Amino acid sequence: MHRKVLYLVLALGGLVFLPYIGSLMHYEGTFPKEFFEYPPLVAGEKAPFNKVIFGLLSVAFLGTALLYIYPRIFGFKKPIVQAEKPVAKVAYPFWFWTGLIMWAGTLALLFARIREPKWLLHWSDLPIFWGFTFLLDGIVYKRKGGESIIATVPREIVGIAVASVAGWMIFEYLNFFVDENWYYPRGFIVPDNEFLIYAIIGSSGLLPMAFEWYSLLRTFKGMKNRWDNGPKINFPSWLKNILLVLAFGGMFASGLFPNGLFFSLWVSPLVILTILLEKFGVWTPFTPIKNGNWTPILLFALTYLFQGVTMEGWNYFSAAHGADGIFTYAPAYWVYSIPYVDTPKLFEMPILGYLGYLPFGVYCWVWWIMFAYLLAIPTKLAKLEAEGN
Fold it and tell me: What is the rounded distance in angstroms from the CA atom of residue 103 to the CA atom of residue 128?
């Protein structure tokens, strides 16, 4: 057990230091003066739009869409759906209404460009993220007849919130080494130290929303078992070892070639943590694929696609867009700067950028599994599909 923990700690160290070393080599031993300034207010220069790369990623986007919409094309068979017990009729819980007020009320203030209260506007992501989490959980509670994460395992939502801070802030750190794929043009309206505290506390709401979306999606009959009966794939150990080496190499190379390999930041951490956990005999959403059950991974991947579109929408409409630039009282308003495929956009996100939300959704689950395993935290949410939730 101690050796496994050591390997995980070393892997996390690799995620932190490999892009640093690669980037240090990229800048010939000396980082630019403002390289590690947080929040980043502008982005580094990026490679221009590339039709070939856009076309290849578009094919990947289309293939992924077909997998979700027409899974039989990829060898999936009709799933066996068991009869479900009737769901008791219950009222929405009080936290649903609390979350609705927190989420909708804060967004209303931002959309209206009201100047006060500044303390709320400057910390708007906190009530928005957690308000939306409470709202989603309340909907699940209603649809499942009184069962939800907050209602049944409230302590775990706290644990996931703590894991969420580390799970997201590592991406804020990695963002330095790809010349800011996202940045905060209005981050200057609060002091840097306040923005950092704000980012740490606010990011506690990012992972909980993924689990709430997963719980909600599983309340729909057409989604709960849609990909249960698919191809059985069991990767041999030698292939896992090669993927592990490539993933660590990708982390290093992302700092060395920030334009060409920026996508490694969204893929390599997921690959590294998943392979290590499975080598240790720990369940991950990839484990059921051995038996042809793809539902856990494909459904959880959707969580941040749905959440991503939602977040990009409320982020975009929280600001005024004019010839003079962006104006908002939210310091964490974010903008993207992606090489090769920066147009066209839906809100601030390039259309093909939404493809990155799929692995990030799965990463959220794997990160919580790793976090709970590393700290020996009892968790029921490590195997939601097995618990019948």
Answer: 4
